[in-house]
Every structure is written in structure tokens, then in C-alpha cells.
Design a protein that fits this description.
Elements (H helix, E strand, L loop, with lengths): L22 E9 L4 E9 L4 E6 L4 E5 L2 E2 L6 E6 L5 E8 L7 E4 L2 E4 L6 E2 L4 E9 L3 E3 L4 E6 L3 E7 L9 E4 L2 E8 L2 E8 L6 H19 L6 E7 L4 E4 L2 E5 H4 L8 H7 L8 E2 L7 H16 L3 H15 L17 H22 L1 H14 L4 E2 L1 H12 L4 H9 L5 E12 L2 E11 L5 E9 L4 E8 L3 E8 L3 E6 L18 H5 L3 E5 L5 H8 L6 E5 L6 H6 L1 E5 L4 H7 L9 E7 L7 E7 L2 H7 L11 E5 L2 E6 L7 E4 L15 H8 L4 E6 L4 H17 L3 E9 L3 H8 L5 H7 L2 H4 L8 H9 L4 E5 L2 H10 L6 H4 L11 H12 L9 H25 L4 E7 L9 H9 L3 E6 L10 E3 L14 E3 L6 E6 L4 H4 L7 E5 L2 E2 L3 H8 L7 E8 L2 E8 L1
Parallel strand pairs: 1-11, 17-18, 18-20, 21-22, 29-30, 29-31, 31-33, 37-40, 37-41, 38-39, 38-40, 41-42
Antiparallel strand pairs: 1-2, 2-7, 3-6, 3-10, 4-7, 5-6, 8-9, 9-15, 11-14, 12-15, 13-14, 16-17, 19-20, 23-24, 24-27, 25-26, 25-28, 28-36, 32-33, 32-34, 34-35, 43-44, 44-45, 45-46, 45-47, 47-48
Length: 973
């Protein structure tokens, strides 16, 4: 951070014309014991003029040539050229703050410590301090005159200044090295003198670096000055760093270079703050970003800049870059440092490395000791590159926000041996002219990079390729200032700090333990709730901070806690019900641990996981996220390159050692169920301690499955008692061979699924609508945190009929309820039967990538598993094995071809399908079916059970009630 609000002035040396400014001779005396400064300032105007002096915090004792005396903050003086205007003043600065302070911790005078002129002037400063003190101010030469009880320091700076700073301490130990023609000093406290050599060596390194890039160091002297406050300021000829900053090991590789570069940018070329502060962004780019880029991590740094912008800036508090003046909060930092640095990166890419460097060098040379603004930067680039970049500066300086890019679609055609790829790009909001870098990944494991020139809100680009493209990645290296897409934006600390509204979830008796941490959010709207008070509306609308690792909400949302019990720990996770929000899990071992660490958290904004012990950071990690906007290219026809159903024996051999084998299906495909059966048979030959878990049956009906397998009930009773046709509904012939094999070989079949009544209630009103008794019938651990799974489900949800009028969050809750219930059912069986292996049969959607049932089972028991999918698309890591069986023709259970009136009791016919057997047999609309082959029919499920036992050519006798009378009909299938 720099502190250098200077205004327009310019000085040329030698025979060149010098612009005149007043001369201000300032003599001050520092009384440390009384925290007082007293002094005299003599002003010699360079012309007849009226001057304003800021006198805030000061008492004016005596003066001359004053008109319009104002005691509050300002006085005005009228002066002629060569007049001598004398002002005596005094001030007291006891407050131990980082603005002005005089006391036992030294002298720290930054602003309002002397009558400050409203115009730049040539300062001559003389400061008397107690004996043993060393003093520093803006100076190319410092002269010390020692007295018996004091010392006077005289500071020579031969250039106009807007503002003076004065530091002094009896704790300073000065160290000096000569480098080229520059005297480099450190003024460190005695206990930190050991850092001096490192800071001097690094200072020489940075001076050489920027000498080579931008010309000679502007001054004959440079100092690194320590103070007790946590500062990072840069003034002409010195930088001011706090003790806590100096002791950080990474500062010499980051912040020190930043402050030294400010000697050129801000302290040599001055900033016109009214027209926008360009200096911070340019310095950030050429210092902080440059150092990281040299290590090959520039894209990571740029992504972090965009993460901070997105965390702290929204449409309500955003402002154009041209309006940035100085840092007042994290929002202004994200714009003035981060967005600005990204704009300079874009500018460098537009003109090239050499032209960029030459343009900046010319800008510095032409504007030394002058005020400069964005227009001067544009002029330098125009003159160096012979191009007018007015459009570039206009769009990035005057527009609020960042572009929001999207790959709307991709189309691939195969033409004459080549591939034609069409990419449709879109940008939301303001339209920018952008050179969009895209990387196209090809099927021969190579990639090609293209620049797409986007100038409209939507444009289509056509690219000819020799090999088939598989995936497109947009701006993977973060070369464009843009809004991050959801998969790119990890859950990090800064997303909590940037929120305007926070809900703390804790028990009231825990609040004192976390009070120091809670106080960090004092500028926000905060609420406090218990875990039981949190409902879906809170989750959908808010960022939550959950305090205490045993908070029940953690199990309800994330299936358990990963937060350590010791020290102070934070894990930030995506909010499962609002991808614009996050949820932080925070645990403090004790109030002492919280107090030692809480205030440090704000310095770790780009991390998702933090572990501290005794205030020391032990771990810092950022959650994985995608780089760039990635889209898989949809192929016209999927290549079935994996194994077929002909090598099931080899597949069985591959998975035989896994505790759990998940086999996916499309429910209505007979070939999938045949693959399942053959794998089960193969595994059973190897291990008779085998069980089969089935999505198709619900947990409350387990006893009836057991009764059937043991022979206590027949198949008809089994199907009726498990309510198979009511709750699953698909033709039982699809699963009958698997159930029969289990029955013949005494293989346990486990009902995995949640009961329909609870699922229906959740689908209509969410988990919070469940009664206490219903909650006991669902898992108490549920993990909603898998963002990739949520994105996949959202895509699936879009294709559901009427999805635009439905709530995705309810759909998501149902899916997780299914997955977690089935995972819990598997785990319960294995806990009770540890010697068993289990095959799980479920829809592909519950198994792809392991997102659904597999990872949730693994979370509970850590057992190894394999995933086998049938007829699933070609995607990396979607499964361990993909099978593409040939279609299998089977005989389905026959159908009557009737539509039932759902609002009536029994089975009353509402209508017929085409070629309905029932209609052809004389049955009419309005008839109510009473029996089927003398078996009573009370529901459509009863009818399906009876139809199961009919084949083509069979007959059936159906009795109906028509107009109050029973009639009988014979049907032939």
C-alpha cells in the first residue's frame, strides 16, 4: 500500500525551466514525555496568492498576514512574492493510533501534524528530538546535529512535495549499504536488527530490476523504516513497514518490492487522484504479479484477483475504475488494485511485452515529478505503438463491473476428413471488445489455442481442425478481467468477509467463546440462530457461519465434520442451496485459541481451509475449482470404446476384491439387467458371502423380502406386500431373474431406498417439512456439499417437464435423500455383516463419477468400491468400467391397454389406449374391474401382479361392474 497523495508539480534540472512553488521552512521540537509537538513554519510565496493551510489537530499560537481566521480545520493567508509568513503552532498526539502518535513507542507523524499548505512547496524540515533518537523524513540527505540533551535532524529534499512525514525512535539501529550511487538504509528496532541484511540485499535486487526496466532509481537515498503499527506505506525516499510486517518471512519477496517500485510509480510520477489512481494497479501488476509470474504461477495470481473482486464487489457497491482514488475497504482494493492490475495485463497482451515495457518507461520519463493520469498513460502507449487505444481505456475505465462470458453452445461436423467446430460465445451486461483465448483439446492428446475476437453480445466462431475436438477451455490462464463462472469460484474466506448479511449458527452459551471472531463482522447485518432454527429459506438466502464442530447442522448439510478439534480451524464450503453463497464451519478449542487467531483470518482471504494452533498457521488450502470455462463437445454419436458384455468374466476378475460393486442401469433396459445378473453370478462363484442391494425396494419392506427369499410367502404375496408395483412400477420381469437367483442361492437382498411418502413430502415442501418422527426415519447425516454433483443434477433438472416452474432445491434435496438413504442402508448391512461383499443395483444417475451413492457410502465406512455403468457416455472418470451391451429382446408382461380414473375407488376405466385388448373384448369406459381370473382386484397394482403371470396366447377372465351389474369378459393376449 502506498501513501503519497501528491498534486501537480514539475521540476527540471540544469538549464531547463523550473516551475516555481512556495518555500516552507518547518522547525519542530518533539516532547516525547508530554506527547507534544511545537514548531514554527515560515512560508515564502513564489507569487502573490491566497493560500489555505490545514490546521486540523493543531493549536495556532501566533501568526502574521492572516485573513479569515478559522479555528476549526483551516486558516487562509494572503501573501505576496518573497513575503515571510510565520506561523507558530503546537499539537498533542497521545492516542496510540496509526495516524499520529508521540509517546514511549516513538514518533509516528503521518498527517495533520503541521500546518499543511494546499499547494506543493519546497520543504526544509528541521526536527529536534530527545537524545538517542534517530529521525527519518523525505530526504536525499539527512544531517544530524547532536546537542547535550537532544539532537536536531535536518532533511534535504530538493523537489516539491505535497506532504511531509516524520518518524523517530530511540529504538532504531541504522544500517547502511552503498549500491551504485544510492545510500540504502534500514532503521529497525534493536530486536529486529537481524533482518537488516536481508532487507538491504533484497532492496538492491529490486532497485536493479526496476533500473533495468524503467530507468535509474529517482533518488540518492532509500530507507526501510520500522514502526510499531501494522503499516505498509511508501513515501519519496523511504518505505514505512510495521514490526509485524517486517517479521513475516515472505515480505522481502512481495511487499518490499511493491513499495520500492512506488518510488517510480507514485513518488516520482505523481497521481491525479481526482482523475483516478492508476498507480496502485500498475504497481501491483509490475511487482506482486510480476514476482509470481516469474515462478510460473501468474494465472493463479490473476485468478485470485478475480476471486477477491467477486467476493467484495457487487452491482450495488461497484464503481468505474476511473473513480478509484485510494483504498478505503476491501471493495475499493479489489477494484483499484485487482481489476486495475488485470487491465494492465490485458494491455500488455494487446501490445506485446517489449512495447508494453517501452510504453511504461516513456510514461515515467515524460512525467517525472509531474502529476499524471490515465490519459497520460494512453498517450504514452499511443506514441510508442503508433495506435490509438482510446476504445480500450474507455471500456475498462468507464464501465462498471466485469464481462460475464459464456460458451452458449458447440457444434461439431465432420467434413471431408476434417472437423468443423462452431463455438457460440456470449457476454452478459455491458458489451466489451475482447480477445478471448480458447484452448481446444483433441482426441490425439494434443491441444490448439485460438484467439476469438468477440465484439458483440453473441457471436459464432468456426474453426477447422484436423483431429476430433473433445473439450473447449475458455480463458484457462485468466488473461481477461471477467466474472468467474460457478465452477471456477471456490468457497474461500473472502466470500464470507465480502457478505453484507451473515447468519451465525450456534448455541447461545457458546457465543462468549467466539466473540472475538464474531466481532470481525461488526460492520455487517448479523443474526444468531440455533441449528434447529435454520430452515431452507435461510440456506437459500444467506451465507452461514456455523460455530462449533459438533453443531448438528454440519451433519444435516455435509454428512459430518472435517474441522479439527484442536486450535482454531475454518473450513469454507459452498452453500448447497445457493451457489452465490457459502457456509463456513468454524471451531475453536477454547476462547484463548479464538482470541489469538481471529483477527488474522482476514489476511487469508483466498483460502478455504485454515488450521491454527496458538495463533500460528499450520495449514492453509484452497478448495479445488476449475480453471477456465470448460465445455465438453457433444458428439453426434458416442463411440462405444469400452468393454462389451462379451468379457464380463474379466470384469468380474477386476472387481472381485472390492467390498462394494455398484452396477448402474437404465431401468427399462433388459440387457442392463442381464449384465447385472451375469456379474452377480460370477462374483458368487468366487465368494458366496454375497448380498445384493436394490434401489427398487424401500427400507420399511425389508421383512417381506426376507420372507419371500426364505419361502415363507410366495411371489404374488411378495410383490403385494412390498408394494413393488405401487412404489417402483416397472415390469417385474426385468428384475425377476436376479431375485430368483438370489432366492435359489440364499443371497440376501437388501431394500435400499427411502419410503415414497417421505420422498413425496420432501419433493413438495423440503426436508424442513418433515415431522420429528419422519426425521428419525431418514439419515441424520446428509452431505449437500458436492458442487459438481449439484451442477450435474441442475443440468438434468432442466430437461424435466415443467422445470421452469419448479424449485431445483427441492429436486436436489430429494436426490440427496435417495443417495444418503441408500448409502446408509448399504453401510448398515455391512456393519451387521462384515464378512459380506455387496453388489448394488441402481440407476446410472446415482452412480456416475461416484457422486451419488458411492462417495456417500465411502464417507461412512471407507470401503473400496468399483463402479460399472451400462450405456453411459464417454467422460473421464465417470466409472471404472462402461458396458455397451447389444439390445436384448425380452417378453414384457402383457397390458390391457386401459387408463384408470385415479379419483375413483378401485380400478375404474377412464379411457383406452390404441389397440386395447380390454376394449376389443367388449369392456367399456366407466366399467370397474372387480376380479381377474377370480383374483379380487382392488388397485391397479393388483392388476399388474396378475398380468405378470400371463404370456402371449393366454386367456383371462375379467369381471367388471357396469351400471350396478356384474358382467364377465374373456380376453386373449
Amino acid at each position: 500500500m502506498a501513501y503519497f497523495k501528491y498534486f501537480a508539480f514539475f521540476l527540471l534540472f540544469g538549464s531547463h525551466l523550473a516551475y516555481a512553488h512556495p518555500v516552507c521552512e518547518l522547525n519542530v521540537n518533539i516532547d516525547v514525555s508530554d506527547s507534544k509537538i511545537s514548531g514554527t513554519m515560515e512560508i515564502i510565496p513564489d507569487k502573490k496568492q491566497s493560500l489555505a493551510l490545514s490546521t486540523k489537530n493543531l493549536t495556532i499560537l501566533e501568526t502574521n498576514k492572516i485573513s479569515n481566521w478559522q479555528y476549526l480545520d483551516e486558516i487562509r493567508i494572503e501573501g505576496n512574492k518573497n513575503d515571510h509568513i510565520i506561523i507558530e503552532f503546537t499539537g498533542t498526539f497521545k492516542s496510540n493510533s496509526s495516524e499520529n502518535y508521540i509517546g514511549e513507542n516513538g514518533v509516528f507523524l503521518i498527517g495533520g501534524w503541521y500546518p499543511r499548505l494546499s499547494t506543493p512547496c519546497y520543504y526544509k524540515l528541521s526536527a529536534k528530538v530527545p537524545k538517542g533518537y534517530l529521525a527519518v523524513s523525505e530526504a536525499e540527505q539527512i544531517e544530524e546535529v547532536k546537542g547535550d540533551d537532544d539532537a536536531t535532524f535536518k532533511f534535504n529534499f530538493p523537489h516539491p512535495l505535497d506532504h511531509l512525514h516524520l518518524l523517530a525512535s530511540d529504538r532504531y539501529v541504522a544500517s547502511k549499504e552503498k549500491h551504485k550511487n544510492i545510500d540504502i538504509y534500514t532503521y529497525f528496532f534493536a530486536e529486529d536488527e537481524g533482518y537488516s541484511k536481508t532487507y538491504l540485499d533484497y532492496s538492491k535486487k529490486y532497485i536493479d530490476l526496476y533500473d533495468n526496466l524503467f530507468g535509474e532509481f529517482p533518488y540518492k537515498r532509500f530507507s526501510i523504516v520500522e514502526n510499531v503499527f501494522p503499516t505498509g506505506y511508501s513515501m519519496p525516499t523511504f518505505t514505512l513497514l510495521g514490526s509485524s510486517v517486517i517479521r513475516l518471512p515472505f515480505i522481502v519477496e512481495t511487499s518490499l518490492g511493491h513499495e520500492i517500485l512506488h518510488q517510480w510509480l507514485g513518488n516520482y510520477v505523481y497521481v491525479d487522484f481526482e482523475k483516478g489512481n492508476w498507480s496502485e494497479g500498475l504497481t501491483t501488476y509490475l511487482a506482486d504479479h510480476y514476482y509470481v509470474e516469474q515462478k510460473g504461477n501468474g494465472s493463479d495470481y490473476r485468478k485470485k484477483l478475480l476471486m477477491n473482486y467477486q467476493s467484495f464487489v457487487d452491482h450495488e457497491n461497484d464503481f468505474p475504475l476511473k473513480n478509484f482514488q485510494d483504498v478505503s475497504d476491501e471493495k475499493s482494493r479489489a477494484i483499484g488494485y485487482g481489476k486495475s492490475a488485470m487491465v494492465f495485463h490485458l494491455l500488455r497482451r494487446a501490445v506485446g511485452e517489449d512495447s508494453f515495457q517501452n510504453s511504461i518507461k516513456q510514461f515515467i520519463s515524460e512525467n517525472r515529478f509531474q502529476i499524471a493520469d490515465w490519459d497520460d498513460i494512453r498517450t504514452s502507449f499511443k506514441e510508442t505503438n503508433n495506435i490509438d487505444l482510446g476504445w480500450f481505456f474507455d471500456q475498462w475505465l468507464n464501465k462498471k463491473g466485469l464481462p460475464e462470458l459464456e460458451i452458449k453452445s458447440t457444434k461439431l461436423r465432420h467434413e471431408s476428413g476434417d472437423y468443423l467446430l462452431e463455438i457460440e460465445l456470449a457476454q452478459d451486461g455491458n458489451v466489451y471488445q475482447l480477445d478471448v483465448p480458447v484452448t481446444i483439446y483433441l482426441n490425439d492428446h494434443t491441444k490448439t489455442r485460438q484467439i476469438l475476437k468477440l465484439t458483440k453480445d453473441v457471436e459464432t466462431f468456426k474453426i477447422n481442425l484436423g483431429n476430433k475436438p473433445l473439450r473447449v477451455g475458455l480463458d484457462e490462464n485468466y488473461d481477461i478481467p471477467r466474472k468467474l463462472s460457478e465452477p471456477e469460484f471456490p468457497p474461500v474466506i473472502s466470500r464470507i468477509m465480502g457478505e453484507k448479511r451473515i447468519i451465525f449458527v450456534l448455541e447461545q452459551d457458546e457465543k462468549p467463546t467466539y466473540q472475538t471472531f464474531i466481532d470481525l463482522f461488526g460492520d455487517k447485518k448479523t443474526e444468531f440462530k440455533t441449528s434447529e432454527q435454520i430452515d431452507i429459506s435461510d440456506l437459500k438466502s444467506s451465507t452461514l457461519i456455523v460455530l462449533g464442530r459438533n453443531n448438528p447442522l454440519i451433519k444435516r448439510l455435509f454428512g459430518g465434520t472435517e474441522v479439527d478439534a484442536e486450535g482454531f480451524n475454518i473450513i469454507v464450503k459452498e452453500n448447497p442451496f445457493n451457489d452465490q453463497k457459502v457456509i463456513a464451519l468454524v471451531n475453536g478449542e477454547s476462547k484463548e485459541e479464538v482470541d489469538k487467531t481471529a483477527k488474522k483470518v482476514t489476511h487469508y482471504g483466498t483460502y478455504s481451509i485454515l488450521d491454527f494452533k496458538n495463533g500460528n498457521n499450520l495449514r492453509k488450502e484452497t478448495a479445488p475449482s476449475e480453471n477456465g470455462i470448460n465445455v465438453n463437445i457433444n458428439e453426434i454419436q458416442n463411440e462405444k470404446s469400452d468393454r462389451s458384455d462379451l468379457d464380463l468374466e474379466n470384469i468380474v476378475d477386476d472387481v472381485k476384491d472390492k467390498k462394494i460393486i455398484f452396477i448402474g442401469e437404465e431401468h427399462d433396459q433388459p440387457a442392463h439387467h442381464m449384465n447385472q445378473l451375469n456379474i452377480i453370478k460370477g462374483l458368487y462363484k468366487i465368494n458366496e458371502n454375497l448380498a445384493i442391494g436394490m434401489e427398487m425396494f424401500e427400507k420399511p419392506f425389508q421383512q417381506f423380502i426376507n420372507d419371500y427369499l426364505s419361502g415363507n410367502i410366495d411371489e404374488r404375496q411378495f410383490l403385494k406386500k412390498t408394494e413393488y408395483f405401487k412404489r417402483w412400477g416397472l415390469d417385474y420381469r426385468l428384475y425377476r431373474p436376479i431375485i430368483n437367483f438370489a432366492k435359489e442361492n440364499a443371497i440376501p437382498v437388501i431394500a435400499l431406498n427411502a419410503e415414497t411418502e417421505i420422498v413425496k413430502k420432501v419433493s413438495e415442501s423440503g426436508l424442513q417439512s418433515l415431522s420429528e418422527e419422519e426425521r428419525r426415519r431418514i439419515p441424520d447425516e446428509m452431505d449437500f456439499s458436492d458442487a459438481q454433483y449439484r451442477r450435474l443434477l441442475r443440468e438434468i433438472f432442466k430437461y424435466h417437464p415443467g422445470s421452469e416452474d419448479k424449485d431445483f432445491n427441492l429436486f436436489y434435496q430429494v436426490q440427496i435423500l435417495w443417495d444418503e438413504t441408500m448409502a446408509e442402508s448399504i453401510n448398515e448391512f455391512l456393519n451387521e455383516n462384515p464378512d459380506y461383499q455387496i453388489v448394488v443395483l441402481a440407476g446410472n444417475g446415482h452412480l456416475v463419477y461416484g457422486y451419488g451413492i458411492p462417495q456417500r457410502t465411502y464417507r461412512r465406512n471407507g470401503d473400496k468400491f468399483s463402479i460399472i455403468l451400462n450405456d453411459e457416455e464417454d467422460r473421464d472418470d465417470i466409472a471404472d468400467v462402461r458396458l455397451f451391451p447389444q439390445a436384448l429382446e425380452t417378453t414384457e408382461s402383457p397390458k390391457l391397454g386401459i387408463l384408470v380414473d385415479k379419483d375413483s375407488q378401485g380400478v375404474k376405466i377412464h379411457d383406452f389406449s390404441e389397440e386395447s385388448i380390454a376394449k376389443q373384448s367388449g369392456i367399456k369406459k366407466g366399467d370397474e374391474i372387480l376380479s381377474f381370473d377370480n383374483n379380487p382386484i382392488a388397485s391397479i397394482e393388483d392388476l399388474k401382479v396378475n398380468l405378470l403371470y400371463k404370456e402371449k396366447g393366454d386367456t383371462a377372465v375379467i369381471k367388471v361392474l357396469r351400471n350396478g351389474k356384474e358382467e364377465t369378459f374373456e380376453l386373449r393376449f
